[in-house]
Each structure stands twice: as structure tokens, then as C-alpha cells.
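Open question from group meeting: does this chain pack into something compact, or does most of it stay loose? Before anyone orders reagents, we agreed to write out a predicted structure and look at it together. Recording both the input and the output here so the notebook holds the full record.
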Amino acid sequence: MDVEGLVPNLVTWTTRGHFLTAEAFKEAILERIGDQKFDVIIIDPLYKLLNGADANSAGEMQKILSELEQIAERAGAGLVYGDHFAKGNSAGKKAVDRISGSGVTARDPNAILTLDLDCTDDRVHGLQEGRHFHGYYYDFCFLPLYVFWGERLLVSYLRESNIDSAKHGWAILALLVKALRPRWPELKITMRADNRIKEQQLGLFSDRTSCHAWWANQFRLLLSSLAYVLLEALRRLGLCGTQLARAQVGTIRLRLLKIGAVITRNTRRIRLWLSSSFPLQQLFCSCLVHFYG
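C-alpha cells returned:
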């Protein structure tokens, strides 16, 4: 499936080889837009517009952002630009303090939503449709793309592996922005790479894309993603403040949900008799009360 087909008016313009100031870029892109209507304009990377400006200078960066705001206002579109987090371990900092440079790009909007876009190998062991040999992973595989908001999974999209790792990324981002912008018009969206993918793959077996047909494997990936969404909600809502509050989904599955039981059935009902020696039965009951009352 080509996700760009879901965004029929997706238009790209590469700035490779162009050295434009923010003001010149504003005039050039508005001329290219003309009378066309777009929901969102994505600029990545932002540093391409520096052109000699000092990223650590609040005054110079504010001038660049002012030009970008004029683009959004005159085009009547939302604006997303790709910036970078500072190097080093800054996991304990808020997002507003993690973006590199003077900090103006982080403090300019009223709110920040950090999306993690990344891909990984999904190795195959048959003749599935769309499989290819990947030189980096040195195996036949798919190359699914995931989008997370913190620990919450928003997108799981199966792709062939004979493509660039960023392929379809901007189209998916455009769809997300189109859905988010009406509710939070002042929201700034930043992107980074993270590693929640392995939690889903290793903990919930999302790599079992063993069907021959492409869409059947996409459906399997969605089923695994749904399982991750349910377990993440359980962890965030039902296990907050408990010993499993920061547990991986695989640990939650094994310790809290994988319980020995006896099943009895009669003409009126089916009963599950859970083990009375289950060590986390109090926590299990607490989760049931939390979700079902």
C-alpha cells in the first residue's frame, strides 16, 4: 500500500542545494502554494533555514520563527517543523528544555507534542508478499513504521524493506496533524526516534507476520498493536503506583495476565476458576475494580 495515496494533495519540495534565508523561503513557498489549499506545511529540517544565523541566538531564531508564522497565517495551514533534541542524556528534562539551540523554538508555541517515529526489521522466514533482503539487517524482512506519543502507540504501518527508512513518514505525519490540528490549533509537534518498538515486538510477538498475503500480515501487525494499546492503558491507568507501574508489556503479560485456570461449563454459563495461589491476585482484583467498578 502506498500511504501517499491517502494524502492526494501531498506536495514535496526538496531544499537540497538551495541556500535560502527564512524570508526568501517564505516568499518562495508562498509563491509555490499560490491559490492551493493545504492543511499542513511541514519543514524539515529547520536548520536548513539558518543560512548563517546562530541557532543559539534567541533574537535570530525569533526572526526565523516570525517568518514561519507568516507562512502559516497567509497559507491558512498548520505548520510543523523538525527540530533536534540536544545531545547527551536529557531524559529527565521536559520536552521544552530538551530541544537544542537557544530554546526559542521550544518556547514559541503554547504546547508541545513529541512524536516518536521509527522503524525496525520484521524478519520473515517464508515467501511472503513484499519481502526483500535488507543489507543493514542482512536478512529478508519487512520494515514497519511506528509512531508513538510517549508510550502510546498511534500508528503501526507495514512496509516493504526495499525502501528508505523515512519513506511514507511525512505522509503519515500529515494525516496525524490533520486529525490533531482542529482540536489543538496552537499545538507544536516535534519528532524524534525512540525504541518503544522493541517492547511491542518482543513482548507481544508483532513479528509473527507469517501469512503469504500482504494485507493479512498488516492485519496481524494491527492485532499486535491493539494488544499493546490495551496493555499500555492497563499500565497507565490500572497499575499506576504499583510494583508493575513501569513494567514492560511482556512482564505484565507474564506476571499479571498469564494465570492458570479451570474452565467449567453448563447449559447457562461458562466459569473460569482462577488459581487461589496466584501471587498477584490482589493487584489483579484491583485492576478489575478500577476498570469495571
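Observations to bring back to the group:
The longest strand covers residues 111-119.
Residues 122 and 185 are 36 Å apart (CA to CA).
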